[in-house]
Amino acid sequence: MQNSFQYPIGTPGTKWTDSEVQQWRESTSVKRLYNEDVLPKIDALRESLDVVQYGALSYDEARFPLFALKTRAWDAKKPTILVTGGVHGYETSGVHGALQFAKNNVQDYQDAFNIVIAPCVSPWGYETINRWNPNAVDPNRSFYQDSPAEESANLMAFVASLGTDIWAHIDLHETTDTDESEFRPALAARDGLEYIEDNVPDGFYLVGNTEKPAEAFQKHVIGFVEKVTHIAPPDDNGKIIGSDVVQHGVINYPLKKLSLCTGMTDCEYSTTTEVYPDSPKVTEQECNDAQVAAVVGALDFLQTSM
């Protein structure tokens, strides 16, 4: 349904120019620090994992270095698994769930897989609690050649530099109340479109690949996650965020068409997690645990498929 809310930046029906983008950027503020919340946790893992700097954001290269973690028992004969978090920097459990998995669980799987973890793809977004980067570009719609998003371009270049195929990619995200109160209205304003209100689902769900849906894989992951948190039900139209529910807690997107993070490779298995941190039924720790459960569930399935 149409929403009467008018975003405070821009003119309704008119796309933003550089002036509106600057106005939007000036409206943001730092709310937490990457070098306090994230970088120390990465540094603490240097004894057990290889820490690789794969770039830095030009907004402030000293402040926003980009790091990935790699298992040390690397072997070209083993399949390679990619785990990403913080592609949307505001989605907190994506970042800290990836780091929790790296700290507590990755060693259980390094004999079977090469595992690469990029825990905070968008550190500027992390600090300002934003979906976009400072140029009002969504990194998770920018995974294509000559990407306008540094966050996406750096990650794609790093993954390509690994010189190996990615067998599976698990991308850790959240769907929050601010998706409807801030980010979707801002998107409509930026693009000069009408904002149509939608509902935020109460619970966890997965986004699979329309071209490679991998139904059994998605079902296995949901089975692990629902031991930790509740799964989002479909709405009255059998949908979650406007997409058909294809099985319990799962919808599909055309990943490459939308230039999503999980579409940047031709991996056989991919899933995007969506934790709902604003539910009164969950705690911050349970959100992180749900992200870890999704990665563990994915790896458990893949081990049985080898």
TrEMBL record:
Coiled coil: none annotated. Residues 30-306 form the Peptidase M14 domain. One of its GO terms (biological process) is proteolysis. GO terms for molecular function: metallocarboxypeptidase activity; zinc ion binding. Belongs to the peptidase M14 family. This is Peptidase M14 domain-containing protein. It comes from Vibrio maritimus. The lineage of its organism: Bacteria, Pseudomonadati, Pseudomonadota, Gammaproteobacteria, Vibrionales.
